[in-house]
Specification:
The complex is a heterodimer of chains A (388) and B (192). Chain A has 388 residues and is of the alpha/beta class. Chain A contains twelve helices and twelve strands. Chain A has two domains: 264 residues, Rossmann fold; 100 residues, Orthogonal Bundle (Rna Polymerase Sigma Factor, Chain: A). In chain A, the strands form three sheets. An eight-stranded mixed β-sheet of chain A has the order 1-4-8-5-9-10-11-12, with helices on both faces. In chain A, strands 2-3 form a two-stranded antiparallel ribbon. Chain A has a two-stranded parallel ribbon with strand order 6-7. In chain A, helix 2 links the parallel strand 9 and strand 10. With 192 residues, chain B is α/β, with parallel strands linked by helices. Chain B has seven helices and eight strands; from the N terminus they run αβαβαββαβααββαβ. Chain B has an eight-stranded mixed β-sheet with strand order 3-2-1-4-5-8-6-7, with helices on both faces. The mean pLDDT of chain B is 94. Classes of the chains: A alpha/beta (388), B alpha/beta (192).
């Protein structure tokens, strides 16, 4: 796998770091604790225009990172995770827009998280890292955007956990963006989704190598993390997409050997996904970020979801995917109708797709059409102009 | 029938839910000419894309599911243009429309138009003509009804027809034997 260098219209892109300093530190967290030092890894694509009005903030999902488009090195086997949506001529057209993507707080790809070193002790934080929320991630992103000299974003765009951040942005900073795009997301996790997260965390924590999170000087809890990822992958696919992709095919041969080496193709796929994940993701970050998703509930401070949306000012585009059983169409509709009841400018469509939750990363053709058109459209909804 | 009649019926600055909004031509006109706060519902993907491109708020939705997620009285008008004959439960949808809208505007083809009567009554064939251009086996129209049928249904449902306009094709006609002469009818309705 991955021996052929890929091309990306965005070419080679640099990584940037933004460290909170001075008055911005310590960074206060919703859970009550603080972080003395915070670093944010981010990338940008395209150019900020003179009146700084063309910036789009892209928010990554659970296992994503700041590297959303382009390549870091000419020989990279893959481009950034949303290269099909970001770049010149693409839905987030970098000839028009200045796209910003940053790694979330608590993650493990350059932004401060449990694998970072605690300045007070000189040791890795591990499980001593404070638990963070989607709101904490968003407030940190807001600091970054402010640091980049942008008062008002043109749009915030996110899928899955990225969509949760986008929702939080719209409610927390109602005047900080003109448009919001939400893909395959929810205003709160279902009990079923929390249950899957908990099984993932359990898999990690029951790996003897986890050592209560203090594994950074030795071997990592690779088994536990791989199993967590395998469970995650089942929830990202659909029964239909698994049937189409694997069916009951065997990985090797046509007949059962009736021994421990028998392997169905789907097992091989999950094993590969699990192993690949261990190389790029930190087990403790899995615990922290999955917990941040569990905590997220936009309606918690309000009697109804529409109460949360009353303050929003952006125009919303919301897309769900028919076979997504992790963040369902019904959950998207809750957001849609709450926004409608709050009198907001909202458009909604369900894309008919067999790919389950992963569809938001796979259905890029129809998704590109919708997102590009929404971003380029004039907004004629009267409520908008009256209240700004 | 053009949208002019519907546009005329709608008050300046009101809120409108357009069911089966198509490419949102009506909502665009209402926004531009009447400052209307509008929202469309359609089930066709390419129509949704068109509406999004034009900047109109639109929901993907199936009218056969009713309007259950829309609160009572949340729009000044709910509009249904030449679609009532295509839905599975027209009576249910009409009730839903006057629940969600304070008023509703419904336009529909009048099956009792004289040409239809001749085609069915004299020739013994299902009507196919300029105004109803489909063969019986591939028509989207699953409920054929007349202006009189519509009036009877509204009475049964406790819905008042407060204004009616009649058309032959695109042309407005006087309300003289409308059930015979009109190819299309447009009614403003509200709960009694």
């Amino acid at each position: 796998m991955g021996v052929y260098p890929v091309r990306s219209p965005s070419g080679i892109v640099p990584e940037h770091d933004f460290a909170l300093t001075g008055d911005d530190t310590p960074f206060h967290l919703e859970g009550g604790r603080t972080l003395a030092n915070v670093n944010v890894r981010y990338e940008t694509y395209g150019n900020l225009n003179d009146d700084r009005s063309n910036a789009i903030l892209v928010l990554h999902a659970f296992s994503g990172d700041a590297h959303a488009a382009g390549l870091h090195h000419p020989d990279d086997p893959t481009a950034g995770w949303w290269d099909l949506m970001i770049g010149p001529g693409r839905a987030l057209d970098t000839n028009r827009y200045f796209v910003i993507s940053s790694n979330v707080l608590g993650s493990c790809s350059g932004t401060t998280g449990p694998s970072s070193t605690d300045p007070d002790t000189g040791q890795r934080y591990a499980m001593r890292f404070p638990f963070v929320t989607i709101g904490d991630m968003v407030r940190l992103q807001h600091q970054l955007v402010t640091h980049l000299g942008i008062e008002r974003l043109f749009a915030v765009v996110g899928g899955s956990m990225g969509g949760m951040q986008a929702l939080d942005w719209a409610v927390r900073y109602p005047h900080a963006m003109e448009r919001v795009v939400l893909l395959a997301t929810t205003a709160q996790l279902s009990a079923q989704a929390i249950a899957f997260n908990e099984v993932g965390r359990n898999a990690i924590m029951s790996d003897p190598l986890w050592e209560n999170g203090d594994y950074y000087d030795g071997p990592v809890p690779a088994r536990g993390l791989a199993v967590a990822r395998m469970i995650g992958h089942i929830t990202y696919l659909s029964s239909e997409s698994m049937r189409m992709k694997f069916g009951r095919r065997l990985q090797r041969g046509d007949a059962f050997a009736f021994d421990a080496n028998d392997q169905f193709a789907v097992e091989s796929y999950l094993a590969y996904q699990g192993e690949k994940f261990v190389d790029r993701f930190d087990a403790n970050s899995y615990i922290y970020l999955s917990r941040a998703m569990d905590y997220f509930d936009l309606s918690v401070r309000y009697p109804h979801l529409e109460g949360a949306f009353a303050a929003t000012r952006a125009a919303f585009l919301i897309i769900s995917y028919s076979s997504d059983w992790l963040f369902t169409t019904a959950q998207s509709k809750e957001i849609v109708y709450a926004l409608a009841r709050a009198g907001r400018d909202v458009s909604y469509t369900e894309i008919d797709s067999p790919y389950g939750h992963d569809a938001f990363l796979l259905e890029h053709e129809i998704q590109s059409e919708l997102v590009a058109r929404f971003l380029a459209s004039p907004r004629v909804y009267r409520g908008q102009h009256n209240e700004i | 029938m053009k949208f002019d009649t519907i546009v005329d019926l709608i008050r300046e600055g009101s809120s409108v839910l357009d069911l089966g909004c198509g490419d949102c031509t009506l909502l665009r006109r209402l926004a531009e000419e009447k400052g209307v706060l509008g929202r469309g519902v359609d089930r066709e993907d390419h129509m949704i894309q068109e509406c999004i491109k034009k900047g109109v708020s639109v929901f993907h939705g199936d009218l056969d599911e009713g309007l259950k997620d829309h609160p009572t009285g949340s729009y000044d008008y709910v509009v249904l243009s030449r679609t009532l004959q295509m839905v599975h439960r027209p009576a249910f949808l009409l009730t839903e429309m006057v629940r969600v809208g304070r008023k509703a505007i419904v336009s529909f083809p009048n099956f009792a138009h004289v040409v239809n009567r001749l085609q069915l009554g004299i020739l013994g064939r299902m009507p196919v003509n300029r105004h109803i251009p489909y063969q019986w086996y591939d028509t989207p129209n699953i409920h054929f009804f007349t202006y009189r049928d519509f009036r009877v249904l509204c009475e049964d449902l406790g819905i008042a027809i407060t204004r009616s306009a009649f058309f032959r094709g695109d042309k407005s006609i006087r309300p003289l034997a409308p059930n015979l002469r009109a190819t299309d009818v447009c009614c403003l309705i509200e709960p009694v």
